[in-house]
Design a protein that fits this description.
TIM Barrel, alpha/beta, nine-stranded mixed beta sheet, 12 helices, 15% strand, two-stranded antiparallel ribbon, binds calcium ion
Length: 326
């Protein structure tokens, strides 16, 4: 009799707990980091199509300006670690031996072949088990082209997948006499991304610039302050005056591993108290570091640390994991 009671009580507790879990998990988002970049060269349209099919909630766009002021979707201000620029335009490098996106017009950038990321000094590909370097026929594209691609797929599939653009190195752009932020905001506005209700999250590492986007440029978009250095973690209260979330390095959330279980810094709880969402980078199934499996990484950060979303090169694995918890 007693065991039946315990069983019924357990069943009751279990059924009460479910909707809460579901609610929380439903708000957890998967951001395809540079597209499905674990499978196809980063930031190519092909990698974005794959991420879309994998049902990532958001697809990321890193943005750098061309010489003729077109925001290009590319991770760095340089071209030589993801394209064949050094072969096609050998005379166009700067004194530091690097090739800069900003030195090329959009029509020139479109002639380059994009490849899996490699070290330009050694020629070696960064993630050896990913898509083979030099294979395929991939190209660079603009922010507008990618928005039209994602919005087009949203129309044809009936899905509602968002964009997650990043303003890259505003200081560098300023020194080159350009204003990347204002050009990007204008394009986002043109395509209907104006407020927090629109399916767009704007991110930047430069805190001065992100604050300016909210307070001076009066953007009403959902803003995420990316965090690189440990001392920035102490500025959460200030970030909360203009941002809606933070994007820390995942290691800033971890503290120690004791008896096989991780303990955590106060970053996530502190951010949540200030109403900030937490979207750490980067979940890579082929670069696990302190974790013994990708499953352990996801359990530790999504469930134990209670993050609100994550940037990942492997959106299918994270989507499946979160769905299996629903
Ligand atoms: Ca990024």
């Amino acid at each position: 009799m007693k065991s039946i009671l315990v069983f019924l009580l357990g069943l009751l507790l279990f059924s009460c707990k479910q909707p809460l879990n579901k609610l929380k998990m439903n708000t957890t988002i998967v951001i395809a980091h540079r597209g499905a970049s674990g499978y196809l060269p980063e930031h190519t349209m092909e990698a974005k199509a794959m991420a879309f099919e994998m049902n990532a909630d958001y697809i990321e766009q890193d943005l750098v300006l061309s010489k003729d002021d077109v925001p290009i979707v590319i991770h760095d201000i340089y071209l030589d670690d993801v394209t064949d620029v050094a072969i096609k335009f050998p005379e166009r490098k700067r004194k530091d031996n690097r090739f800069y996106v900003i030195d090329f017009a959009f029509n020139e950038l479109q002639t380059l072949k994009v490849t899996e990321r490699f070290n330009p000094k050694t020629g070696e590909q960064v993630y050896p088990n990913r898509f083979p370097k030099g294979k395929g026929n991939f190209k660079l594209h603009s922010l507008s082209e990618e928005i039209e691609f994602i919005q087009g797929l949203n129309t044809s599939t009936g899905k509602n997948i968002g964009i997650y653009p990043e303003i890259k190195d505003p200081e560098f752009h300023k020194k080159e006499g350009k204003n990347l932020t204002e050009i990007v905001l204008k394009i986002l506005d043109k395509y209907g991304y104006k407020t927090k209700k629109d399916n767009c999250i704007l991110q930047c590492f430069d805190a001065y610039e992100l604050e300016r986007i909210r307070k001076e440029l009066k953007s009403e978009l959902f803003l995420v302050q990316l965090i690189e250095f440990p001392e920035e973690v102490k500025q959460l209260t200030h970030f909360a005056t203009y941002a809606n979330g933070i994007g820390p390095w995942y290691k800033q959330i971890l503290d120690k591993k004791v008896n096989g279980k991780f303990t955590f810094s106060t970053l996530v709880t502190d951010a949540h108290k200030l109403g900030l969402k937490v979207h750490p980078y980067t979940f890579r199934a082929d670069a696990l570091d302190e974790f013994s499996s990708f499953e352990e990484m996801m359990q530790t950060l999504f469930i134990d640390a209670n993050i609100d979303g994550a940037f990942t090169d492997f959106p299918d694995l994270v989507v499946n994991y979160l769905n299996s918890r629903n």
